[in-house]
Amino acid sequence: MLDPLHQFTIKPIFNIKIAGVDLSFTNSSFAVLVAVIIIYLLFSIGIRNKKLIPDRMQALSEITYYFIADLIDENIGSKGQKYFPFVFSIFLFVLFGNLVGMIPYMFTYTSHIIVTFTLAMIVFLFVTILGFVRHGLKFFRILAPGGVPKLLLPLLVPVELISYLSRPISLSIRLFANMVAGHTMMKVFAGFAVMLGVCGIAPVLVNIVLTGFEIAISILQAYIFTILTCVYLNDAIYLH
């Protein structure tokens, strides 16, 4: 029970196998479902009865909407607003994936590299396809920034190519590693509190502080994931 890595184990809730393929509904699937339901309720209730003076739900949904709209405008410009649904969906999925994992006995699906890497690959493929659609073969200019001497291109292009191809790796590992490290640390201090009994007041206090810190990290990581998505979209739209 005190194993700090036990919380990341995927467990089936309903075993489902079709034609030999395991399609079981797991604790990870349940966490995704909870996150999607929360997102739906937040915005459906928030915009159901629009008021001149918004209530808390309307204010929260409007703040979130305009936060992402401003983020796109600052990093991409007016041409980026057409991609608002994509960026907004990415932000909400990562944000609530991180925050749902803070609920006791819930699962943090963003703590698994397969989830974060899939999200990162969606962003990477979307940006790459967008770049070729908008610029054709000229999109390869992203590997050779303007103003660079031609003699340096044989050295610069491979470096830029490796940097470009490593985007989904760095994007996914950053989110995955932060979620795993934070939740593991919280579990370790919780274990100290249990083992020390009445003398475990210090670990309890540390865990309270860590909980607040982890919530802040959860929001920050969603922001970083989203702003990097905007930066990659900016590269695809304008090149260097």
What does this protein structure show overall?
With 240 residues, the chain is mostly helical. It has one domain. The protein contains 7 helices and 4 strands, in the order ββββααααααα. It has a two-stranded antiparallel ribbon. It has a two-stranded antiparallel ribbon with strand order 2-3. A hairpin with a 2-residue loop joins strand 2 and strand 3. Helix 4 runs antiparallel to helix 6. The radius of gyration is 21 Å and the shape is globular. The termini are far apart. The model has no long low-confidence stretch (mean pLDDT 87).
Query: Count of helical segments?
Result: 7
Shape: globular
Write down the Rg.
21 Å
Task: Quote the beta fraction.
Answer: under 5%
Tell me the series of helices and strands, N- to C-terminal: EEEEHHHHHHH
Give the neighbour order of strands across the main sheet. 1-4
Number of domains: 1
In round numbers, the mean pLDDT is 87
Cα(first) to Cα(last) distance is 52 Å
Structural class: mainly alpha
Q: How many strands appear in the DSSP assignment?
A: 4
Low-confidence stretches: none
Largest sheet: 2 strands, antiparallel
| Secondary structure: helix percent | 55-70%
Features:
240 residues, single chain, two-stranded antiparallel sheet, mainly alpha, globular, 4 strands, 4% strand
Give me the secondary-structure topology.
Layout: E1 12-14, E2 17-18, E3 21-22, E4 25-26, H1 27-46, H2 56-75, H3 84-100, H4 113-135, H5 153-165, H6 167-196, H7 201-238
Antiparallel strand pairs: 1-4, 2-3
Helix pairs in contact: 1-2, 1-3, 2-3, 3-7, 4-6, 4-7, 6-7
